[in-house]
Amino acid sequence: MAAAALLLASLSGVDAFWRMDCHSPLGIARIDPLVNYGEIAAHSHIIFGGDNFSPTAGYDDLIASESTSCRAKEDKSAYWTPSFHFKHSDGTIEVVGNQGGMLAYYFLRDGGTGKEIKAFPAGFKMIAGDTNKRNYTGPVPTPPQSTWGPDLLTQASLAERALGFNCLDYANPIPEGSLTRHFLPDKSFLDANCKDGIRLELAFPACWNEAAGVAPKGYKSHVAYPDLVQDGVCPDGFSTRLPGLFYETIWRTQDFVGKDGEFVISNGDPTGYGYHGDFISGWEVETLQSAVDTCTNLNGELESCPVFTLQTQPEMAAVKLTMPGDLKNENCAGPESALPGNVAIQSGPQPATENHAGAAAPTYAASSYAAPSYAVSSKPVVSTPAVSAKLPAYSKPSYAGSFSIQDIHAAGVASTSSIATSEASSTSAAVYVAVTPAPSAPVESDGGSIIGTTTYTSDGAVWEVAIKEIDITVTAEPTGAARRRRHLAQHRHVGDRHGL
């Protein structure tokens, strides 16, 4: 295990992480003490954390919370994102069911610098994402990290790639990786492919400019992304490394299969580009620093950290928001004739106008926005009839000995000795091979090189993935061999997932 841990750290910069399970929301309400302090917020949010959350909540309020909807009693932080809704063809709108609350990952990554990771200081607040954004400026699909040039390393570009919309199908042997799709798929794609819903993902900046303070106006200028979004080197002026915060929230889009309409985020965004999240630390600094320093397991399990006092799921579910009087009668769940706050649905590509509470909401047809149509590389596009042949075990080079190599599965290409990827134009695609008849020789490798890594969770397990470029040879009778350069995803199980 020591050797495996060393290899994993060298490949991905992951020294440790834990998953803070916030199994049940405090509630869904138009409350946002960062953007709309002391007021009714412009749009609704799903909220987790300390029970003292309110339109005026700050660090001292959260620390004084009697309880939290998150699993570790020591974590009184506030975590919130926009809620997720479905607009029916008759114009009525209702909230989509949430599956299992949310997970807040704390990644302890130093970008290979060896620098100390510091706990969030008292009073620390930040926002990730831009509620008014309705376009994407980067290449689709995203190139491998090893090829990112200056245009992809700006903070604006990195922030675009800090959003993820993960299509969930637990029967798929190769799930989509985290942060691989940066837009909300349209309903037809969700109905056909995402049998277990969609997971909305958000990575927060992990580099801090201490001189800028803990909560400057706008709650963004004091932090920055490292140059690989979740890992890598911090930019000049942002030298303090913080835990890498990462939100996952699952929504039950499968409940709306066959129903006519569109999905939309509560800020009026049907594209996903305007997804965002907020965070106010509710940790005692010494407690969080102790966890950062001592909870260095690779499995992500809270049970592995003696710093935390853990709650049961019923205890978390019992913690609810004290709703302000002027919001007690608001029905954010619906069905209603408009989004909470009467927010306008705006599909862009120009930035959305500010959505102020009470503003008249214009109507938009469901067809006003068309999601980009590309396939994320880690999930094959399967044609009918699908080819189900599996290749023999891959011959691993010595440095990858601690990995268990995932089988390569057919992607439905019927021709003999053919190499297919789920996105032909993508240089980051995993390899899928369809062979008729079955191959008579194993896949061979020239060793290749690691070109990128990622972490994802699937069906109760956490995997660390190394993407490696290799030459492969497939021999099939009677047509001989085909040789192509492609990328292979190597998966290593690093822990089990809780609460979902």
Automatic annotation (TrEMBL):
The keyword Lipid metabolism does not apply. Residues 1-16 form the signal peptide. Residues 32-283 form the DUF1996 domain. Keywords: Signal. It comes from the Eukaryota. Residues 481-500 are annotated as: Disordered. It holds the Pfam family DUF1996. Residues 482-500 have a biased composition (Basic residues). This is DUF1996 domain-containing protein. It comes from Lophium mytilinum.
